[in-house]
Design brief:
Oligomer: heterodimer
Number of domains of chain B: 1
Number of domains of chain A: 1
Strand content of chain B: under 5%
CATH superfamily of chain A: P-loop containing nucleotide triphosphate hydrolases
CATH class of chain A: Alpha Beta
Shape of chain A: globular
Radius of gyration of chain B: 20 Å
Distance between the termini of chain B: 28 Å
Order of helices and strands of chain A: EEEHEEEHHHEHEHEEHHH
Number of strands of chain A: 10
Helix content of chain B: over 70%
Largest sheet of chain A: 6 strands, mixed
Largest interface: A-B, 30 and 28 residues
Structural class of chain B: mainly alpha
Helix content of chain A: 25-40%
Number of strands of chain B: 0
Distance between the termini of chain A: 60 Å
Largest sheet of chain B: none
């Protein structure tokens, strides 16, 4: 389990995370939602120990270091691969550094997405690069797969296919933490939704509970963020009145 | 050990073909320029011919582009490879050392290729030049008389071999330092400075040591500075602060 307690992170004077506490057990698919700058990416980078922070983040009771970091993989829209290296080259490299790398899964996903094995990744389209980034994260053999806006630039068919594949291949040990703005797209795919706003967790709910209560994920999010449904019509009305 | 070799393999896979391609182009350019100069000035001695043919300039360009190719892997220009490096089973410090070792090997390869090419040009000269300009020791003497040839193959001048070793060592370290600094959002100025210094002192006449010890210390100083900076940065990272 990843256990986060009292996590605080500041950039200069601005607090990006204000005492976040969260538990992420194995076997869940967690959607991480929030507005731009809410702290989603910062939270992920703190989990990976890429950023200095105060508070505590543990993986199965131990601090995350080089010894256990292989249990966490990371797919980001910023991309973390080596542009001049081919997919086959990445596979060979990852196999040396991540002992549980799944060759079988890698080949299946490469085949599914019809990605070339021997071309440098830099020659891929943006969508293909995103797919490859996600493939690497899924094949690393990690128990925790962090995905930060992994499909920015992919078309909807591509994304839907991916969700289906993901549901089919994940084992019960694997946890996916998916940060995205595409709430409705992932609503049927995730089992838990964590809402973050201005560096604080403002909502944390299992989708099964929402179903029991007869709510949709979108309605829960709007309710949590106090979304005003009449905001657009009021704004348009004011604008039109102003013009007249 | 396999993990370290895989990192060296990573740098090798991303640069070797480019380095070899560049080398082929440079060698072809040197051969063309040399044969052209020999055709235009058949009565020149080999030392002057090497100078007139601008082979040393081609080598300088070759060295510069070689360095450019070597500093690119590991830089965060279009993707954040730092996210991968920091999740490996070896430290980023070890990655730096692996890259430095690989880069040193590449510079040794560059030097060997230039020596073989220069030797080939000298042999070509002995076949094409007028008989009155040739003797049984033409090639051997050329490597003493030509500043360029002597600089790449100093024969018995031990000091020059030492300088060459330091140049290769410092270039290896500095070119590995560049991507390391780049991943931290800094520009590897020492890499540029070191490249200029190495290029500046490389071609010198036989027995000339006026500025060489100073340059040597400068080069070493820069190399050590790079290592010092790297250790400092890495300590910050090891303690949990980075990016």
């Amino acid at each position: 389990m990843i256990k986060i307690q009292g996590l605080r992170k500041s950039y200069g004077g601005k607090q990006a995370l204000k005492g976040v506490s969260l538990e992420l057990p194995r076997g869940e698919i967690v959607g991480l939602f929030g507005e731009n700058g809410a702290g989603k990416s910062t939270l992920m980078k703190c989990i990976l120990d890429f950023l200095p922070y105060t508070g505590s983040i543990t993986l199965d009771g131990e601090k995350i270091t080089r010894k256990n970091i292989a249990q966490i993989s990371f797919a980001t829209s910023e991309h973390s691969f080596f542009g001049n290296l081919s997919a086959a080259g990445h596979r060979d490299f990852y196999k040396e550094h991540f002992p549980d790398f799944s060759d079988k899964r890698f080949l299946s996903l490469m085949d599914f997405f019809e990605l070339p094995m021997n071309k440098p990744i830099k020659s891929f389209s943006t969508g293909q690069k995103n797919q490859f980034e996600v493939i690497l994260a899924l094949c690393q053999g990690a128990d925790y797969i962090l995905m930060d806006e992994p499909f920015a630039g992919n078309d909807i068919f591509n994304r839907e296919d991916f969700y289906k594949v993901l549901l089919g291949i994940l084992t019960e040990r694997e946890t996916v933490i998916l940060s995205t703005h595409l709430i409705e797209e992932v609503a049927d795919f995730i089992g838990r939704a964590v809402l973050i706003s201005h560096g604080e967790i403002v909502g944390d709910v299992y989708t099964s509970r929402l179903e029991d209560e007869g709510k949709t994920l979108m309605s829960y999010i709007k309710e949590t963020y106090h979304y005003r449904a009449d905001r657009v019509s009021r704004a348009l009305g004011e604008l039109n009145n102003g013009e007249v | 050990m396999k993990k370290h070799l895989s990192v060296i393999g990573l740098f090798c896979r991303t640069t070797l073909y480019r380095l070899l391609g560049l080398s082929v182009l440079a060698i072809v350019a040197e051969v063309i320029l040399f044969t052209q100069a020999l055709k235009n000035n058949p009565d020149l001695g080999i030392e002057l011919l090497i100078e007139n043919s601008r082979v040393p300039f081609v080598f300088a360009a070759w060295f510069l582009l070689f360095t450019f190719i070597l500093v690119l892997p590991g830089c965060d220009f279009k993707s954040r490879s730092v996210y991968t490096f920091r999740r490996l089973r070896i430290s980023e410090r070890a990655v730096f050392v692996c890259q430095a070792i690989y880069n040193m090997a590449c510079y040794i390869m560059l030097l060997c290729m230039q020596i073989v090419t220069a030797y080939g040009l000298c042999v070509l000269y002995t076949h094409l030049a007028p008989a009155e300009l040739l003797s049984g020791h033409t090639v051997f003497l050329a490597f003493y008389r030509s500043d360029f040839l002597h600089s790449i193959l100093p024969l018995q001048e031990g000091m020059r071999w030492g300088l060459m070793a330091i140049a290769i060592l410092s270039m290896g370290i500095c070119t590995a330092n560049f991507p390391f600094m780049n991943r931290r959002g800094s520009f590897g100025m020492t890499t540029v400075a070191n490249t200029v210094i190495v290029m500046g002192f490389y071609v010198r006449e036989l027995g000339y040591f006026g500025l060489l010890p100073l340059v040597t210390f400068l080069t070493m100083g820069i190399a050590l500075f790079n290592v010092f900076t790297w250790e400092e940065e890495d300590e910050v990272y090891e303690n949990g602060a980075a990016i």
